[in-house]
Write a structure and sequence with these properties.
heterodimer; A: 386 residues; mainly alpha; ABC transporter involved in vitamin B12 uptake, BtuC; two-stranded antiparallel ribbon; 2% strand; globular; B: 254 residues; alpha/beta; Rossmann fold; 4-stranded antiparallel beta sheet; 10 helices; 35% helix
Chain lengths: 386, 254
């Protein structure tokens, strides 16, 4: 099984199949409508990118929503100025957040540990206030940046795309980006993003990032200049966030400052830790789970709870509903918090640790677990001869 | 110049404490040079001044004709001076093979190289070299174990392997056998005397006189931040100043 997963081809085949068939196998749990599927893919990309920084190097950024916002604003501007085709929008969105990540990363990486986290948080809050008020001409402040009929759209103009009544919609060479086709576009980008992350994980570069997390001082005395490694990883993860942000604009072409708020930065931290920081698929699982809960539990209300627990005797039903009610609807964050606490306390490695424990348990039950002989160097004959 | 490392007039004070007082030390190419001295004599401070962890107040450290003072730790490593630490400085979350591959990669790639699309599993040369080095230290049979899970003696040997794989021009060893059982100590001595390592220039800080007299070509004695004697093991054994400052104080000489 593990040898089997060493081949990139096999991993990608499984991953692509699972992602592309998501609308089918997510249907029974009520998660197969396009809006939610798009969110799964977009936040999956965000979390996979965040994991390249946090999971590999251990540097905890509390400001990655900045890059999400920059990606969204840039994409919307690309729709306004250039074309309603999504290709220029996502390329520019990713590139622009890369530039921002380079500047913010360079400054924040002057420090490590908690000081690094605080610096990224400070930069994110600065970006948020800039977007919210100071840079209103660019970001349209509180209202958010929107499309309008009067936008120039230079490239579309050159190709003689007719100006229709009403707001134009985003498209990929005339394939509409709403509904299921929008999801499939995001899914393909997610698969590419996952492939890049897989390559990084299995490269010497990825090994060095993990070594920095393990013992940075030792890395320096081993002859590596750690700063450029950290900065590259910061910029790569910032570009993932920018890509996710521009995909948000692709599926819904508007951008607001709230996307940059610290709660959004915190959310991606939760997703990564919940799924398993430093694992390949963990962050994606975390992102999916959180977005699923957000949609399912925030939609529940008192009468629906009564319907669910209808089978119970009346008094018991009332008690159960009274206990659960504060955790759903408006209060779904309570549910998320409780879940997060349970995972961090019992499974510090996130869902992925749970999965690997379950695998070991099943192996033991089925008797596949061959006890490995305990080897230490002290008993090897080679050592004794000398 | 036949001296590979030239420490000239180095002074270092911490607050009111003079940790190093006009230290002069010349290390010849190919020799194994032991630095001994009572606790607090300034041995570790001296090593730290060599590898850039500390900057001396005055004096110079010249390695292969180049001034080392003010250089970054990673540049000093690439200049060819590599240090093995007293408390094992390894990568606890990586396995033994990866621990040894990292310094091999550093040797090949320099201080920074951006190659996120290379495949680690295809680095056959580095892989083989790392396995061979682990085998030299009898660590190859459990190369896929996490470095945090192995015994302290194995950790010390792993660190030696990490230093050796870089083929440094000068290896600085800070108490390579501290805290080891006699059995492990003897194995480490054998390793350091082995063909692969005997031609390498080494500076060893050590408390264990058994280790010092089995390995050193020359010995320097550091007391209260000052080098009071340098010479062959026999000269040092018979030096009255040394006896007074160090050997006479206790029964360290086993």
């Amino acid at each position: 099984m593990t040898n089997f997963l060493k081949s990139n081809g096999v991993v990608m085949l499984i991953f692509a199949t699972v992602v592309l068939t998501a609308p089918i196998w997510l249907a029974p749990i009520g998660a197969s409508y396009p809006d939610l599927l798009q969110k799964f893919a977009i936040f999956g990309i965000f979390a996979i990118g965040f994991n390249i920084l946090f999971g590999l190097t251990g540097y905890l950024s509390f400001g990655h929503a900045t890059f999400l916002g920059v990606g969204s604003y840039t994409a919307v501007w690309a729709f306004k100025l250039l074309s309603m085709n999504v290709i220029p929008a996502i390329l520019l969105g990713t590139a622009m957040s890369g530039v921002f990540a380079l500047a913010i990363g360079y400054l924040s990486l002057q420090r490590s540990g908690i000081y690094f986290s605080i610096l990224t948080l400070a930069f994110a809050q600065m970006s948020y206030s800039l977007a919210y008020s100071v840079l209103t001409p660019i970001t349209n402040g509180e209202t958010g940046l929107q499309l309008s009929q009067q936008d120039p759209r230079i490239i579309d103009g050159l190709f003689g795309v007719p100006v229709e009544a009403g707001l134009p919609s985003t498209h990929l060479f005339n394939i509409s980006m709403s509904g299921l086709s929008g999801f499939y576009f995001c899914a393909v980008i997610l698969i590419i993003a996952f492939y890049v992350s897989l390559k990084i994980f299995r490269s010497p570069f990825g090994l060095k990032l993990r070594a920095i997390k393990s013992n940075q001082t030792r890395m320096k005395y081993t002859g590596f200049n750690t700063r450029p490694y950290l900065l590259s990883s910061f910029v790569i993860s910032g570009m993932y966030a920018g890509l996710a942000g521009s995909l948000m604009a692709v599926t819904d072409p508007l951008a607001g400052a709230e996307r940059m708020q610290w709660t959004a930065s915190g959310e991606v931290v939760l997703m990564t830790i919940l799924g398993g920081a430093g694992t390949l698929v963990g962050p994606l699982l975390g992102a999916t789970l959180i977005k699923y809960f957000e949609n399912i539990f925030s939609a529940l209300n008192l009468s629906e709870l009564h319907k669910i627990f209808d089978g119970l005797p009346d008094t018991l039903e009332n008690i159960v509903v009274a206990i659960i009610n504060p955790f759903v609807g408006e209060g779904w964050h309570l549910m998320l918090g409780a879940l997060f606490m349970i995972i961090v306390i019992f499974l510090p490695g996130g869902i992925m640790e749970g999965v690997s424990r379950a695998f070991k348990w099943i192996k033991r039950i089925l008797g596949f677990d061959k006890k490995q002989p305990v080897v230490t160097s002290n008993v090897t004959p080679k050592g004794e001869e000398k | 110049m036949s001296y590979i490392l030239d420490i000239d007039g180095v002074n270092k004070t911490f607050g009111g404490l003079q940790a190093l007082n006009d230290v002069n030390l010349k290390i010849e190419k190919g020799e194994t040079h032991a630095i001994i001295g009572p606790n607090g004599a300034g041995k570790s401070t001296l090593l730290n001044c060599c590898i850039g962890r500390l900057i001396p107040d005055t004096g110079s450290v010249t390695f292969n004709g180049k001034n080392m003072i003010g250089m970054n730790a990673h540049d000093i490593n690439h200049a060819g001076m590599v240090r093995v630490f007293q408390t094992p400085e390894i990568f606890p979350d990586l396995n033994l093979l990866q621990n040894v591959m990292i310094p091999a990669l550093a040797k090949r790639e320099g201080t920074f190289s951006f190659n996120p699309f290379k495949t680690l599993a295809k680095e056959k040369e580095i892989h083989e070299e790392a396995m061979a080095t682990l085998a030299d230290f009898s660590l190859d049979t459990f190369h896929d174990k996490l470095a945090s899970s192995i015994s302290r003696g194995d950790k010390r040997r792993l660190e030696l392997a990490m230093g050796l794989i870089q083929h440094p021009a000068l290896l600085l060893l800070d108490e390579p056998t501290a805290g080891m059982a006699r059995h492990d100590t003897n194995r480490t001595i054998d390793l350091l005397k082995s063909e692969k390592m005997s031609s390498m220039t080494k500076v060893i800080i050590e408390h264990d006189m058994h280790v010092v007299f089995s390995l050193a070509d020359r010995i320097s004695v550091l007391a209260r931040g000052h080098i009071i004697a340098t010479g062959t093991p026999d000269e040092i054994k018979n030096d009255p100043k040394v006896k007074e400052a160090y050997l006479g104080e206790g029964d360290d000489d086993e």
